[in-house]
Structures are given as C-alpha cells and as structure tokens.
Fold these 4 entries.
Entry 1:
Amino acid sequence: MSDEGLEGIVFQSGGYRLIGTLFLAWGPGPKPTALLLHGMPGIEKNHDLALFLREHGWNSLIFHYRGCHGSAGAYTLATIPADVHAALDALGSGAYPEVDPGRLVLIGHSLGGWAAVLAALDEPRVRAVAAVAAASDPAAMALDDLATAAEITRFLQGITPEAFVSQWRGLAAPQYTPLAQVARIAPRPLLIVHGAADAVVPVAQSEALHAAAGHPKALVVHPEANHSFTRHRAWLFQTLLDWLSGLG
C-alpha cells in the first residue's frame, strides 16, 4: 500500500514479531524518516503527528514494542530500547526505498522519550532526538505501587502488576536512566519539549534532562499543556516540524 501513503511493517526483535505502520510522504525519492515512539502502555500513539509530518515531507514509523498492541512476546521495559534498534535495522534494510537511511530521527513521547534517549546513545544511524514529556529519571516517579501497575498492565501482555513493579524499580540503574546518559547524544541535536501542566511526568524531569545534556540542545515548555498535549497538538506539531526543518 506504499502508493496509498502508508504501509504495514513487520520485523523481528529478540526473536519476537513486532508490527507497525510506515507513513510515507508524497513524491519520488527517499525521504527523511522519524520513528515515533509511544509511551506506556501506548494509549496515545501519535498517528495525528505521523499524518502531519507526512504532509510536510517526512516519513514516520509507529511500531509497537514486544508485548503490546499486537506485537509478540512479553512486555519488558528493559528491552524497549532494543526494539527501537530493531526498528532502525528494518528501516535500513533496503526493503523500504522510500526511506533515506541517512536521515533517521527519534521522536519519543513519555516512556518513548526515555527509550529515544537510551536507544540513541551508541546508535550512529540516529541523526537527532526529540524527547516529549520524557521520563528522564524513572526512579523519581512513583509508578511502583500495585494499583498503578494494575492500571498499566491491563493493556499489556505477559506482565503482571508485580512484575511491572519489579521492572520499574530496575530502571533506577544508571544504564536505564536518561538523566545519567543523555550527554552522550551530543554533538547530535536534542530537542526537549514539555507541558508545564503535565500531571504524569513533572516538567522538572525535562528541565533536569536539558541541564545534563550536551550541545546542541533546546528546551521548549508550553505553559498550559498537559502530558499528551491534548489541547495543544497543533503547537506541538509545529514545534517539532520547525526543529526538524532546521536539521538541514
């Protein structure tokens, strides 16, 4: 269905079958491509952002980590960055001639922002990273109680609330903490976006991430936006497009 502007995609990560959708920009020749990494459990998948970017010359890939939204395997927090690497492998395989493998960008929302930073660290194929309402310091977020875990895991497969609590606490290790690792993204560009009214991930997490990052970097905070930018989607899209357009 590539001539229709979108194409289903299936690839392997850790022996598991992951699925997604590739939104393809119009016109001939390979295009720059953004991997849009959703959060946890991924209720907001950012299809509207993919459609917006498609209208402005960018391909987008939205895929689902193992154990969620139809992808195989058990949901495992620590393997999400590996799933991002597998998505990059798929895009660079030559199977999608519409994709320019030299112009790949990660844009992650919430836990997807966490994954974007970690996946980019030792990944030269990633040209730039945008972290939107990112969980940059998981240990500072109180998601390790069973009631919260039960609300999250009801959308996922292969993980109990008890297992989720254990996995979340494991993210306190430095190798899983973007705040401790983000400086390694430089000299590639980093955009950090947050809403001041975010009740899920405090804006302080993005402020700390920006302070720890190397250059070039930018922090943009909307004074009224919530975690999903529900009433400020157009502002978010334009902010991201302006940054993407400046990558050259």
Entry 2:
Amino acid sequence: MRCLVAIVGPTAIGKSKLAFRLASGFGAEIVSADSRQFYRYMDIGTNKPTLEEQKSIPHHLIDVVNPDEDFNLADYLHMARKVIEAIQQRGKLPLLVGGSGLYVWSIIEGWEIPNVPPNQDLRRELELKAREQGSHALYQQLCEVDPIATAKIDPHNIRRIIRALEIYQLSGQSPSLVRRKEAPDFPVLIIGLTAERSELYHKIDQRVDKMISRGLIEEVKELLHKGYSLSLPSMSGIGYKQIGDFLSGKMALPKAVEKIKYETHRLARHQYAWFRPSDARINWFDTTHPFIILSEAKNLIQSFLP
C-alpha cells in the first residue's frame, strides 16, 4: 500500500468526518495535518477527534507536545514521514487530513526544511517589535528579504513571520530558497472539500457555538491553571486568545465569541490561498450533498489504489 490519500479544505468543512468514514471503509489510519491539534490539553478549541474515535480508528500526530514546547515544520516533517512509512509498511492506507496548507504541501511535495534551531533572544526581539509597531512591521521586514515566502504567510500570523525571519537571520538565506522539494516516491491522491462562502461561514459559526457549549471557557481556565501563559504561541490560536481576553477582563463573552467567528472566517479565506479551486491536483467536492461525496470519494480511492 505504497500510496497516500490527502483530504484538504478550509476549517469546519467536514474533513475529519469524511476521513473517519473513509478510514472505516478502507481500514486506513489518519495522520493529522492540523497545526493546532499537536498540543496536549487543547481539545475543544482545536476540534480534536474524540477519544472514542481515536480508539476506533488509529490517529497519529495528535497530542505530541505540551503547549509550552516548540514544534516547527521540520519537527512535523520528521515525525509525519516516519508515521506514513510505518502505516504503509503495515499494508494500510495513510489518510493525511487537515487544513494547514504548510503542513499538507510539505508532505505531498516533499519539502526539505533547513535545520535552524530556535533562537529565543531573537524571537523576543522580534516579538517586542511586533508589540510596539504591529505585525505589519514584521511582515514588511520579511517582504523586503523574501517576498516569495511572505506571499504564502498570513500577515496576522506573527509566529510564522518570526520563524521565517529567524531562518533568514540565522542561516543568511531566504526561507523560500533553502526549502528544497523532492516529491515522495509513491502516488498521492488529493480530495478537497469546499462550499459556498455563506454556507462555510454558517458551518464555522455553528462550530464555534458548539465549542462554547462543550466547555471551551473551562478548557482555557484549566490551561491557565496548569501554568500555560496566554503569551505562548499555542495559546494565541483562534479561540484560546479570545477566551483568554474574556477571562482577563479585556472583553465581554459575546464580543469574544464574535471575534472567534470573525477570525475563523478570515482563516478559511486564507486557507483557499493554499488550496486553490483552480489547482488541478485536487479533486474537489462540494459539501452540499455529503452522502454523494462519501460515495464518490470511495469510488475515487478505489480506482486509485493498486
């Protein structure tokens, strides 16, 4: 079973649900490509599969680091490639599932990432600049040295901007130039899920309301109780930052929930920059008819498998 199936698309579109059903039918194992599900104790806000789902279908690269530990793309690639190879050697089908385009394409396109270790002094210096001058100042700084890398980074994603500047300043090379590509030696099938913008926003809003009702506020309280600061990169993720602001008295709960929905809408729009509807590599399905999608996706995979 030397092949790989990837399921991609914007947040809240239904990737995990489809992957679970496909995995059940094909005896497959799921490999996460969701950059927020790597962290332990952060379950509701990242919409992780339930423990029952993880027991029913093997899931990989979920809960691999604590919220205060560094976990970068090079770490992910090292772990994901080992996991995918192990699944293939067991004769199983690996399903790569997630909306983090950086992680998905790094596997599919075979990126080689420079091993540039974190430099905490430099990071603190850049973080201070972001606080004093705004994220746009760092974004512009990166654009001046590497416009290609900048075009693929969300201007509000300070963590990724800082990492790109870190690679440039410590290696002396532009991040886009030091990333080599060597496609994997097995075929890859990519399934993409999409929906009309209004329908996608409705799905996102429903998910956010469900996260609140499931206990997102209590989850953030517990993280703070464990000693994880709101200044950590993991705690600056959508949902955790806004609920943290609510708990610290910076905004009322309705405003925090509204901000979560707004920022998630913006994230979804940015994800389409990674997964373009015009990309011929992706087999797109509109989620208006989920049962048709399941049937057609099964047929597509069946014809793809050796």
Entry 3:
Amino acid sequence: MNQDGILLESLAFRDRLMTMIAAFCAMRPGEIFGLLWSSWRGDHFQIEGTAWRGTLRPGKAKTKGSKAPVIIPDVLLPVLKMWREQNANASAEALIFPSEKGTPMRPENWLRRRVKPVANALKISGPVNFQVLRRTFATNAQVFGSPKDVQTHLRHSDIATTLNEYTQAVPESVRRLVNAVANDVMEDPRPGPMLLRRVQ
C-alpha cells in the first residue's frame, strides 16, 4: 500500500471521508467545508456555496464554472452513506462536516489538528494539504482520461491552468504512450505508404 492509502487507513472515519473527498473529488477546501446534505445528489455533489474562515457563503463559488457537478467515485459512496446514517437527524440544509458549534470548520485547523499529526506519526514524506491532494489527482488522472476530462473534474475555466499548473509529466505514462503508438503502427494490418514494416 502506498503512503496515500496508509494515511487514509489510519485516519478516523470522518477525517478519512473528508480526505477521500479532497483526494478523489479534487474539491477546493472552501467547497468541502461548505457542503450541505442537500449538495449530495446521489452520484455527485452540486456546489451550492463555499465556506470562508468559518462562515458559510451560500451561492458563492470561486468561479462561475465552479458550480458544476462534482462526480463522486463509486468507492466513496458507501462511506458517504454510512456518514449520512450516523447523521440521520441532520436536515438537508445542515453542513455535512460541521464544527462542534455547527459552523463551517476552518480547513487549516482541521489539517493541523486531525490529519498532520497522523501523517507525522506515520513519517509520511512531503506536505499534506488540499493543494497537494488536488494537484496529485490531476497528475494521476491524466493516465486514465483526456486533459479535457481532468479539466472538467477540476472545474477549471481554462484548460491551460489544468495542464500547466496542476499536472506534472509522469515518465512511465509517457513511456506507455510512446510504446502504444509505436506498437499500433507496427501491428496495423492496413496497407498504406506510412505503414512501417518490420525488418526481416
């Protein structure tokens, strides 16, 4: 199991769910801490507002495009359902992850108190924060989908932001790409002047 998996397995249930949303839904911290139960629409979250410094801001988002649906991966749905069962009395307009006072938690406090101590105890190398989780998703996702798919999930208005600021080259992915193209050309049975022939 990699460091990400080890960290997730070591967190308390609620903190694990929140970290999974940050890692797989690649949401901004203000969006996560501003989630209401009404924001959960089965297989996706609908961004209806954000939280900022412990205050809920209904209708506010970083950009107009940020209010798009956010796909929830299948692996996350059972965990989210369990959390809803534990909070069955919460109204649709209640926060999914409220503070003890019922207000939005501050992301930096949650990281400092709930996640970083666990990461430090596990000797996890590298920073653990929302920006790293979001950018790690973007880098890993390019192996499985198109740049447009990644941009859509991150809800960037400009694909250049996704490509130039959020994704890094994955050497092994580049190698697979090069080999796949080469093998496709070499094994293509269709005749044509551009088809390379194996040396006999």
Entry 4:
Amino acid sequence: MGQFISKNKKWFGYIFFCVIFAGSLLYYRFPSDALRDYLTITARNLNNSTTLSIGQIKPSLPFGLKFGQTELILKDKPSIKLFRADSLFFKPDPWAFFKGKSKYCFECLTYGGDVKGCVNFKKNSMETPFDTEIELKNMQIAKHEHIKDLIGRQIDGILSATIFYKGQHKDLMDGTGEANLKLLDGSIELLVPILSLESVEFNEITSEMVLEKQTIHLKRFELTGPLLRSTLSGTIRLKKEFVKSALNLKGTIAPFTSFFKNMGVASNAVSFFKQRLKKGALHFIIHGTLAEPKIRFT
C-alpha cells in the first residue's frame, strides 16, 4: 500500500489540490442569498402563519451549513418572535442517506443555552412524515422576549429538556410526542392568583408530559421552592389559538413554615389554609382555558 501511494503521490497531490480548490470556490462563491430566499419561501409554504428570517448562510465542513441569526416570526404579529437562534449549524447524516433515509441534524445557540437534535423524514409515509428528537441545555427563559405572549404567563429560570415528536408539518397538534423538562432557579406566574400569591419562586420544577390526539397529558409536574411544594397533573386540550386551550387539572399545595411567616399571623390566608389543609396539603382543581382559568379548592 505504501509503495502504491509513493508511486502515485503526484496524483494524490492533484486530487488534494482539486478538493481544496473546489472547497474554497464553494465557500467564497456560495449562493447564500439564493438559498436563503428558497428556505424562507419553503417555510412560508409549509406554514403560512409564520415567517422565517435567516442571516448569512455559509458552508461548513463536512457537509454542513452554518446560519447566522435565525428567527421564526408570527406573520400577523411581526413584533412577536416564536424562536430566535444566534447561530445554527445544520448538516445531513450521510450514513442515513446511504440507507435510503433522510436524516438531518442541527445544533444552535439560543437564549444563552444550547439546542441540538435530529429530524428524520419518512418518504413513503403519509401518517407520520417526520419524527424528531431534541435536547435543550441551560436555556435562560427570561431572554425570550415574548414568552408571556406565547403561553399567556410570565416565567423565568434555566431550562433543560428532552423532546420526542412524530407528526406532520401541516398540523403539529395532530402529532404524538413526549417531553421531560427541568427548570431551575426562577419564578412562574400562576394561572390564577392563589390566596395572595400571583407568582411563585422555585428552586426546581420537573415535568413529564405526553402529546396525543391534540391533548397534552401532564403526567407529572412538581415544583419545589422556598415557600412551598406543589404538584399538578391532568390534561390540556389544545386549540389552534393556544391561550384558548381547555384545562382539566388537579393539584396540591404544601406550604412550608416560611410561607405562613410571609403571610403574617393575622392573615386570612393562614385561616384559610388551616381550615382546608388535608395531611399538610391544600387540594385544588383548575378548569377553563389558559386565557381564563378557573380554580376551585376541594
């Protein structure tokens, strides 16, 4: 083998030069504007309610593309950005293509954290045209300028999550999936004020949820904070206008001593808790919608 290379080293040199030359030419003459226009038009055709904005696109070895700042914007409300990535690296999986499959992987920097994942496209399947697996690490939720506009509640903290999803691009709510979330060191605005509380600080929130038949099944939601511990479970029936999604949830609140100290000895909240506490916890049910939730203590 070494002798063969030695005899043909000039040809290997020519090949290496051609590869470098072709790569340099592709890099400097890459049709960034044409590709950006194609991607924005394609995204608009897939979902006419959103607009895709992409910064400069450059090739990145091996077999990848690097995008500048990328934003997904609501078409009827251009001031609201559904998502923003400071940088995005996108590449196909060559081994998947050799097997006749279409698989693309990505990595991006967004909201102070990292997101990476892969998308598999099913060529001959009408029921589940694609599936995806996404991992989020250390995203700073407060850096999302429009989080309250999107979910109807203000929330802060550091988010890590794993998300699995199968569905169609035409109607994402018809898909199936599951998500495991962990949120650290933040605060969350309550669906409705509970006693004198409009928001709750937390040390950790963990949640497990499943999506099927246009319904989010909240299997587990646990919040632990300096004042209390809370749990929540139930379903959220999704609507196209997310804030109109129907709630059917039940939960508990277990206050700590610090909670009562903050309320004050003569507070009506203290009397309320003493009357309704069952084994150290207050039980409640939430109905209504995300925009207009209704809470009832049991």
